[in-house]
Amino acid sequence: MLLGLRHALRLEPAAIDALRSRSDWSRVLRRGVAWLSELDEINKLPADVERYRAIETPALLLYGTETQPRRRAAVEALADAMPNAKVIGFAGHGHDVANAAADDVASAVLAFLEE
Which residues pair with 90 in a beta bridge? Predict the structure, then answer.
């Protein structure tokens, strides 16, 4: 798992230390096997966002403002490509915002669905 965090996600040592200090670190480790399979599938996808331009359905894109810059850039590229995308950044959270700020994320999703 640590190799994946260092090399696949290119996390800085301080970010890894922050993850390891979380109270749910043991759960993060248990998700590691599924995570590696997911990374394999993600790596098979085309690198560009052109295919997303055809999606006209309203879409909600969420990210943590402390997410690695390359992941934020991916969200921004998707938002630019998708004509009806709405982007919400959650201040102070990283890539794991859906777990770290579950109540805030759920509220944002519910509000989006009510629009």
Answer: 64
Which pair of structure tokens corresponds to residue 72? 């934020």
Consecutive H or E run containing 105: helix 102-114
3-state secondary structure (DSSP) of residue 85: strand
What span, in angstroms and rounded, lies between the C-alpha atoms of 104 and 4? 28
In terms of Cβ atoms closer than 10 Å to its own Cβ (0-12, 13-18, 19+), residue 82 is buried
pTM for the structure as a whole = 0.67
pLDDT of residue 105: 96
- Per-residue pLDDT band for 18 (boundaries 50, 70, 90) equals confident
Q: Quick check: helix, strand or coil at residue 4?
A: helix
For 29, 53, 58, 81, the CA distances from 109, given in Å and listed in that order, are 27, 22, 12, 21
113 close to 86: Cβ distance less than 8 angstroms:
no
Report the DSSP beta bridge partners of residue 61. 87
DSSP summary character for residue 54: G
